[in-house]
Amino acid sequence: METMQAFDDGFATALAPEIVLVIGMFTLMIAPNLGDAKFRIPLTQIRIPWFFGGKRGALESDPRMPGLFASVFFVLAFLLAALSYVNGMNVTMIQSEGGHDLLLVNEFSRIFELIFYGALALASIASINRIPATSRNDRSALGLYNNRRQVDFYILLMTTGLGMSIVALAQDLFLLFIGLELASFSTYVLVSFMKETKEGTEAGMKYFIVGSVASGVGLYGLSLLYLWSGSLQFTELTIAFAENGMEPLPLIALGMLLVGFGFKVSAAPFHFAAPDAYAGATSPVAGVLATASKAMGVIGLLRILLVVASPEATDGAAVWLVALAVLSVVTMTWGNLAALGSTNPKRMLAYSSVAHAGYMLAAITAIGALNWEPEHLNVSNDAALAVVTALIFHLVVLVCFKLGAFLVLSILESEKGGHTLASLGGLAKREPFLAATMFIFMMSLAGVPPLSGFVSKLLVIMGIVKVALVDVTVSGNLTFSDVHWVWYLALLMVINSAISVFYYLRVGLVMFFHEPEAGREGPLPQGKSVRLAIFACLLTTLYFGVGAGQLIALCESAANALVGAW
Amino acid sequence: MAASAGSSVIVESTAAQYAPLIILLPMLAFPIILLFGKLYNGEKFWKDNLKEGGLIALPVMGASLLLALWLISDFIGAYGGVQKLSDWTWFTSSIWESGFATQEVSFGFGIHVDHITVLLLFVASFLCLLINTFAVGYMNTDPINDNRNHRFYAEFVLFCSGMLGMVLADSFLWLFIFWELMGLCSYLLIGFYYERPSAAYAAKKAFLTTRVGDVFLMVGLAMMWYLFGSLDYDVVFDKYEIKAVAETNASMLAWSLGLMFIGAVGKSAQFPLHVWLPDAMEGPTPVSALIHAATMVNAGLYLVARMFPFFGAEALHGELADLAFIIAAIGGTTAVMAAAIAFVQDDLKKVLAYSTMSQLAYIFTGLGAALYLANTLHWHEYLTDGTKNPDYYVNHAIVIVAFGAALFHLFNHAMAKGMLFMASGAVIHEVHHAHHHLHHHDHDESHHDTPEELIMLANYLEANGQTAFDFFSSIDLDGSGEIDTYEFQTALKKADVVDLPPWEMAPLMKALDLDGNGSINVPELDLTLGRIRKEIEEGHHDDHHDDFDAQSMDNMGGLASKMPLTATAMLVGSLSIMGFPLIGGFWSKEGIIANTWRVALEDPRFMYPALCVLLGAGMTGFYMSRMWLKTFAGSPKGEVAAHVGPTNTWIKTPLFILTFFSLAGILFASMGFTHWAPDIEYGLMSDHGGLWGGFLYEMEHVFANEKAFFFILTYVALFIGAVVGPGMALSLYGGALDEGEEAKAWFTPVLALNAAVKGRYHWDNSSFAQSGFATALSNRLYFDHYYDMAMLKIVAAFSFKSAEADSKVIDGTIKTIERTSQQLSTKLRALTTGSARDYILMAAVGTLTLFALIWGVIA
């Protein structure tokens, strides 16, 4: 591992994706204002080109320019993050001058960067057609207004991305929180971006209120933790926790942080604002909330539960085991049951993402059940690795099909549909390819082989079962009493998946067998870029289902980087 | 499946890298054709230039064939041993093994290539391409198929990918998966004309009958899994694995193989699961028939041939002899039974269907004999105790030759039968067209286009003694004096005559609405119904178009001069099937007969199959000759046959190619197909000094065998199969062509012989034709009858009970779960009030709960 301070040699290489985003942000801020303005030196006739202001050129005044630029920057950041895998990962720790760990670039943070930038790139590409923009010659008030604010949207997407990658990189709880808040505040605004609509404003407001309460609670937990240990470094917190983690102060702090991150992954009962927010936001944004934003919350949970309050630190089960188990069961059941009755596909997807949060919580719970006594160590380590791998795999493929489903809805949105299931009616007749794609996304969400959703669900279930069987594997006898009760979480997951098939298939039923609503007979509005994004989602959904091997290996290296840090 | 170390040789081969494409290409073509067919249905470009998907399927199948040929040439070049290639692992899972440890199992797909694979691969990919070519000429020229051919081609390519996948798969599990895929496609293709009740019935029958076999196959596979812990060829064919199983569980292995054999019996339509095959001819004429003759039915044979490593294993020496006998006995029984039924069939395709059954039975007998030899002879180079086997050279050769004969017959039969079916399709196609052409004219004049429903209505009124006026006033709901479509439809439904959807009412209304004002009044109804009733009384309504059977040989005859290429193809095909000297089937059939007898000399039980195949040879000679003579020789029976014309190029091309392949039997035999095995000594073109040496060797081996018994046997078989059987047919059927009909030169000897023999030795077979046995034969020996009865008595009763239990217990439970979930869902969603204050309240409750839970753990 290479250790360095900010702005040392190699700093730019290590944080290249983030730097690209910062550059992108400034570019977006400056570019639309560039023109042919000249500055006259006072008292002379010399005019120096000054560029800010004046008559703008074709490119700068094109309302679609910010979208294109942002997409390019996101794709660039994604590629830079992916490029670091070539020739092996260069693990880099960036420290403060005082020698505190700040940011760690390793396989774990890289794969999350890939998730974030991938999701944001897709959302940004899809938004090029979806945020209303008219010709630059449109002088009407609304046209001007819409065109002017294009750039705001993409800058917010970029700050979201920056915040998220700070969360992935952070080695310090405080820094992690800063990143989380940067991303959260950007998403609050993104949700209510369409402030002309009542739903958008209301959703953004609610999301903000509930979110700030959760953040407040989390921040309070953070301060308690600092009060207790005097540091927010993960490494030092881990040591402190191992020494006297059973004191009330850290436990209260732990509970409060759970609330903060629980809101981010939309675990029940902290999820209430999520369906409203998803329904009110434009679909690409909702897709980002359901995928990247959720992955960010999962990082928080992994850091706080596995690294700080490491299960290894306690004898036997982790302190948070029961609490998290209850949380996961409630979350997955609640999400699935609520989704059953939803007639708004975006709310349905929101609830389904609550259910998925439940599955992920179940996976994390399982790790808490591991036995870390010396003779169990190897087996336990294997099992933990399997679970974390499954979790990361799940987060990656979620970007493919969940975001894809939201993007399909976003096409419907552009003809004022997508808020009722009925508006999907007859999609198979109107747009056979789109309907088939949506159906594949739904099947993947339901976990039907050979799609990637199946592989991810299978890996999670297998991981949990592996954990439950650790004692059995060590002792060598299969007796039911030796099987750990986290096994039931896997069972509940299977049952919940069965329930979920109902509402996923219903989308297919409506698309293929119902007649289109009146006034929605023809093909949908075009939108090349959003269709391109959907197609990319489709290909990855299929590919990671059939050829999951490489991605699993990638996730495994990421999991290794995390588990090795315990 | 799992890629654990096995005994197989893994050879790097570029062709093998691409081998999965052989399966994938047609599989991908399936959705494409289906989708485009739906989208562009009826459009000119789609119809004329792409032949409704036929010309999408064609290059795909061509590519598959090329890739297959590449793989085959790589394999032959390598003299490969067993190749197991392009392993692709989907994911790895742990499976809990009894109590102790977990076992890693990979799910994936691999290609397994050995000499059996290669043979079947060529047959399947080659014939699929030819069928495709043929189908373009056959399906797209029949108006009845218009705008739905895409369905045919889509199902066809899916079928091909199933067949190719089954052949290339590297585990019994994948074999089974592709096997079932073929079963599905077979069902879809037989039921292509699903609107015809007979086709729907035949499809169901084929599906269900083969399913009976498949259940056994599945159980057999499950047992094998239990024994080996895997279904990979790599594992189960490993001789150490077999040895381990043989030491503990040999009888269970025998049962497992036996059950798998039942699956093969179903798929290859052998006694007693043969009943589906003749009905399968309901599919689009020659094409579905060809699938059920040249490719799919070989799946069963392939499965049995795949079992060879078990029979050949030294560790199982003698353990599987009984099973080998059962295989041969089933084959022998079917061979004779099917041939006998074929005697009395008048339907051209049915004759071929039974002939298929009979020839497949030959191959089963041959396989049975070969497996018996492999199991009872010590044919490995080293004995189990490690010493050198003194009889290695002789025994090894015997096993290889016996197995090779069966495989070679599979090849010959596939080529010949493929051709025969395509030729019969061409005949039927042209007869049908001739009929259509001849009778088109008088149709328009005499035949009023009266919808069937109106006839039913007229009959109904007649039966109830109602007049048209009574009926009218009863249905004129709004009392307007006119009835519209809706009222008429309601009335028909009410009177229980017919319940039509509104869009199908249009022709009825049109037939009744004489003045064309869109509704019907009393005089119109009265007039039309009166006319119909009169027509019924005069018997005007038996539609002779439906009565004419284009497949019946009674409507053919003398076609040799009108369809020269087709007649030639059929002649060559028939001779090949009969085993006429030097033509394709001769080499393999002689081999099968000789090897069965070889076993019979050792094991008296085998006398039964041995006699069966000898008798069957004569019967084959008879029914094949009868078929050809009735179709192509003599004078045309009826005016239709006199007006048949030649057929189109799409149809001719595959016929021409396959004629060559059947004629070239001597070439293949000389190349060493008769004893092809995966080693250098017995590889193709590898022994006896090249083609010419091979030719000499084969000729000598067959016609001048040094062992007296086999020398005599050869000539006896020849005499029965090529002289007695055909001779009887020649004396009964056919005859010289009509005056002035020019036939190709090569028909002259056949026709002359026919004329000569028929004139001189015409013997009376009427006593046989009227006997109970002939009746039984034409009723297919009452198998269907008894199966139906058993179904009704046992299965139907059971299924009614099951249906009841299903709807009450299972559905009831599911419905309750569903209702409860929906209620819960409503309640839960009611908690989402929409007010942020409530959300925070809930979050607070959740926070407190979390604290309580953490606290609970600590306290």
Structure in words:
The complex is a heterodimer of chains A (566) and B (859). Chain A has a domain of 171 residues. Helices cover 69% and strands 3% of the residues of chain A. In chain A, 59% of the residues are buried. Helix content of chain B is 70%, strand content 3%. Chains A and B meet through helix 7, helix 9, helix 10, helix 13 and helix 18 of A and helix 1, strand 1, helix 34 and helix 35 of B.
- Report strand order across the widest sheet of chain B: 1-2
Give the mean pLDDT of chain A: 87
Helices and strands of chain B: which structural class?
A: mainly alpha
Gyration radius of chain A, in Å: 24 Å
Strand order of the largest sheet of chain A: 1-4-5
- What characteristic shape of chain A results from the CA principal axes? globular
What's the shape of chain B? globular
Global structural class of chain A: mainly alpha
List unreliable stretches of 5+ residues of chain B: 1-10, 442-447, 540-545
The total of beta strands of chain B comes to 2
| Tally of contiguous helical segments of chain A | 22
**Mean pLDDT across all amino acids of chain B:** 79
Give the helices and strands, then pairings:
The complex is a heterodimer of chains A (566) and B (859).
Chain A: E1 2-5, H1 11-14, H2 16-30, E2 38-40, E3 47-49, H3 65-83, E4 92-95, E5 101-105, H4 107-130, H5 141-169, H6 173-191, H7 198-229, H8 234-244, H9 248-264, H10 273-280, H11 283-290, H12 292-308, H13 321-340, H14 345-368, H15 377-413, H16 427-430, H17 432-446, H18 452-468, H19 470-475, H20 487-513, H21 528-546, H22 548-563
Parallel strand pairs in A: 1-4
Antiparallel strand pairs in A: 2-3, 4-5
Helix pairs in contact in A: 2-3, 2-5, 3-4, 3-5, 4-5, 4-11, 4-12, 4-15, 4-21, 4-22, 5-6, 5-12, 6-7, 6-12, 7-9, 7-10, 8-12, 9-12, 10-11, 10-14, 11-15, 12-14, 13-14, 13-20, 14-15, 14-18, 14-20, 15-17, 15-18, 15-21, 15-22, 17-20, 17-21, 18-20, 18-21
Chain B: H1 14-39, H2 44-49, H3 54-78, E1 83-96, E2 102-113, H4 115-139, H5 149-168, H6 172-190, H7 197-228, H8 233-236, H9 239-267, H10 276-279, H11 285-295, H12 298-306, H13 308-312, H14 321-343, H15 348-376, H16 392-446, H17 452-464, H18 468-475, H19 485-494, H20 506-512, H21 522-537, H22 544-547, H23 564-578, H24 584-602, H25 607-632, H26 639-642, H27 649-663, H28 665-671, H29 690-703, H30 708-732, H31 748-760, H32 766-769, H33 772-778, H34 783-831, H35 836-858
Antiparallel strand pairs in B: 1-2
